Amino acid sequence: MQLKKYTDYGLRVLIYLAASDRDKRATINDLSDVFSVPKNHLNKVVHHLGKLGFIETWRGKGGGFSLAVDASDMRLDNVIRQLEGDEDWIDCLNPKCKIYPVCGLKGIIHAGKEQFYSYLAEYTIASLVERPEAIQVLWHINTQELNNET
Predict the structure, then answer these.
(1) Residue 40's CATH number
(2) Which GO terms describe its molecular function (predicted)?
(3) Residue of 83, 89, 85, 87 lying closest to 41 (CA atoms)
């Protein structure tokens, strides 16, 4: 099982915001510089996170975004289900598998998926940023390295 890049970027945005100073709004440029992710991808992710209620967004001069929910209230299972879409991991009916009526694969995969999400439910976005100062230092190093390459 592999998470979509979209979900990866969404988690990075939330981690960035959780580790950032609460009084500073982030921008797409900030995130693009830190994570080396194209701005158009980040725009889509940020827009979706705003629609889901995880972040607040402001347009125009002085705009940006910040967390709308405390990071300790954002369980990983919920965030990932929202970003991934909670679809079946296998689709035995499209095209219809001939052994579907007697095969146990779908049930096993479904149970595994639920165990996966149950495990993730033990963690929050806040649990990923227990050392925000260390995270911020690494962001600044990455940004400086990128600036030196250009």
Answers:
(1) 1.10.10.10
(2) DNA binding; DNA-binding transcription factor activity
(3) 83
